């Protein structure tokens, strides 16, 4: 054939054609994106529209609307419920300070090896089994009512305090297991490497294993935080602690209208949704960083 | 090739490390079976043998990372496996480097290397870091001091791990297949470091699959089979005229695989 002399003309003709093609492809991608967006919008509108239609046309909707969505009741309840919500927020932060520390102690006790540490390991196993085994609401009732009833000198009789302790006991049992999974995930040879440097078991955990372990379980820990943020509402079962849920309950028993519960729900959602979004963002970013750093 | 003249004229070179009838099982599996081995001061001993013959276990037991079931291990004539021995103190006298490097991933190289010195020996930060920098410099890692382990190559990781083991100024260095996890082009730099240490007279026990290197650097090569030293001889002798049938068969396989 005559490829040698004609090759420049072929090259010339290919370049513009390639450019046209890529514009065409981009346009096609754009079209595809618009179509996907339209489908998503339509299906969302249809789905929620149908759901609302079903609710609003249910036989008892007018009564439910007055019972749960009464604007005047919402307004009246708001100050008290909001005031109670600060009790929840304070409880949340106090628990957040105590739980990681308690859990760390439990996890470290469980991770020590050798016969000398058997009692500590046993204690840690019993602790996690017991406090993970009791429903949180029962634990709050038992500790919140039980320990103040003992009237032990020097111990506070404040129900809110014991509610906090109950939350901490339960959550630190779960959190300790999360830490432990992180410690166990570090390769055995990391432990051996640390011990071979002459580090004691404690130093091995403190300097070699725990820092990696904690880094690895941050996503799991953050999910625990999200769930703790909601579970602080369980303190309401003690009755004397006037948190958001309890305030709503008090108003409801007086007015026989459930809208105050909606007010409390709105407050919890206002915190938990941003928190959940942040956790998702954090986990995704963390995953991206890890996959990048692999050489 | 480094030449190491044998010294038969001295009746007994000082024995640095002695294993006597060491037995170690994991469950039903006996890995070390009445293992006996002497290592002299300044001697470089290579352990060879098929996977599962007990090389790694032997090294782990010597560093007291795994307790032995029977027998005894003597370091400078003292039984280090006896009751009441300060195992952390013994481990500081013995260095070990693993196949998988095991730098701590959350620390820079410069935090990894002096960790034992700072925490186990409670030496001052400035002084131990200075020593670490010197050592890193000497082994060509001066510019990697502030890097994290996952940002440097496998060869650099392993050299840094060797430097970390050297920080304690160990009397014996144990090397457990330290080049097995490396890409072929990175093996040389690690072997270079080991050769330098051998030339400087550090007592070493190497478990290795690098037969050429063993021949080059070892004073004595031990062929392990079913948890015992089946045959031990200077490399020239063991590689060219092995006495045991099993040694011969193993070397034959290694040769066929192009590793010798």
Helix-residue proportion of chain B: 25-40%
Predict the CATH topology of the largest domain in chain A: MetI-like fold
Q: Can you identify the CATH class of the domain at 15-104 and 170-256 in chain B? A: Alpha Beta
- Beta-strand residue percentage of chain B: 15-25%
The average pLDDT of chain A is 87
Unreliable stretches of chain B: 7-11
Strand-pairing-aware structural class of chain B: alpha/beta
Q: What is the residue-averaged pLDDT of chain B?
A: 90
Tally of helical segments of chain B: 10
Taken in chain order, the helices and strands of chain A follow as HHHHHHHHHH
**At the fourth CATH level, what is the homologous superfamily of the largest domain in chain A?**
MetI-like
Instruction: List unreliable stretches of 5+ residues of chain A.
Output: 1-16
Query: How much helicity do the residues of chain A have?
Result: over 70%
At the fold tier of CATH, the topology name of the domain at 15-104 and 170-256 in chain B is Rossmann fold
- SS-derived structural category of chain A: mainly alpha
Largest sheet of chain A: none
Say what oligomer this is.
heterodimer
Largest interface (CB < 8 Å): A-B, 21 and 33 residues
């Amino acid at each position: 054939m005559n490829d040698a002399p004609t090759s420049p003309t072929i090259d010339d003709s290919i370049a513009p054609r390639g450019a046209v093609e890529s514009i065409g492809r981009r346009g096609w991608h754009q079209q595809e994106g618009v179509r996907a967006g339209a489908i998503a919008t339509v299906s969302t509108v249809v789905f929620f529209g149908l759901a609302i239609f079903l609710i609003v046309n249910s036989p008892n909707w007018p009564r439910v609307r007055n019972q749960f969505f009464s604007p005047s009741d919402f307004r009246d309840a708001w100050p008290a419920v909001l005031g109670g919500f600060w009790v929840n927020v304070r409880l949340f932060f106090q628990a957040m300070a105590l739980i990681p520390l308690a859990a760390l102690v439990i996890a470290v006790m469980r991770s020590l090896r050798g016969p000398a540490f058997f009692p500590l390991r046993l204690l840690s196993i019993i602790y996690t089994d017991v406090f993970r085994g009791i429903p949180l609401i029962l634990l709050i009732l038992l500790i919140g009512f039980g320990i103040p009833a003992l009237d032990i000198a020097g111990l506070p009789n404040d129900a809110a305090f014991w509610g906090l302790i109950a939350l901490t006991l339960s959550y630190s049992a779960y959190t300790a297991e999360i830490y432990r999974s992180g410690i166990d995930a570090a390769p055995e040879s990391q432990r051996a490497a640390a011990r071979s440097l002459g580090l004691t078991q404690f130093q091995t955990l403190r300097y070699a294993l725990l820092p990696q372990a904690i880094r690895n379980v941050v996503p799991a820990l953050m999910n625990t935080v999200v769930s703790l943020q909601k579970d602080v509402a369980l303190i309401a079962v003690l009755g004397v602690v006037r948190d958001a849920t309890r305030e709503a309950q008090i108003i409801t028993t007086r007015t026989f209208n459930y809208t105050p519960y909606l007010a409390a729900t709105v407050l919890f959602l206002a915190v938990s949704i941003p928190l959940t979004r942040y956790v998702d963002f954090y986990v995704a970013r963390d995953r991206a960083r890890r996959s990048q750093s692999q050489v | 090739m480094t030449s190491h003249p044998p010294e038969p004229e001295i009746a007994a070179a000082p024995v640095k490390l002695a294993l006597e009838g060491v037995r170690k099982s994991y469950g039903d599996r006996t890995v070390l079976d009445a293992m006996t081995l002497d290592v002299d001061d300044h001697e470089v001993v290579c352990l060879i043998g098929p996977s599962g013959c007990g090389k790694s276990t032997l090294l782990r037991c010597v560093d007291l990372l795994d307790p032995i079931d029977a027998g005894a291990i003597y370091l400078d004539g003292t039984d280090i496996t006896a009751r009441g021995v300060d195992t952390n103190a013994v481990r500081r006298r013995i260095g070990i480097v693993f196949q998988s490097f095991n730098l701590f991933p959350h620390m820079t190289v410069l935090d990894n290397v002096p960790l034992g010195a700072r925490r186990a020996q409670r030496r001052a930060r400035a002084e131990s870091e200075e020593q670490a920098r010197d050592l890193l410099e000497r082994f060509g890692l001066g510019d990697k001091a502030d890097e994290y382990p996952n940002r440097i190559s496998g060869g650099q990781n392993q050299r840094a791990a060797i430097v970390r083991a050297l920080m304690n100024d160990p009397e014996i260095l144990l090397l457990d297949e330290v080049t097995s996890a490396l890409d072929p082009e990175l093996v040389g730099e690690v072997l270079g470091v080991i050769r330098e240490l051998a030339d400087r007279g550090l007592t070493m026990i190497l478990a290795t699959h690098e037969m050429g290197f063993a021949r080059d650097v070892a004073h004595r090569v031990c062929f392990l089979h079913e948890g015992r030293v089946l045959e031990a001889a200077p490399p020239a002798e063991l590689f060219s005229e092995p006495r045991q049938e099993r040694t011969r068969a193993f070397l034959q396989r290694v040769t066929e695989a192009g590793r010798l």
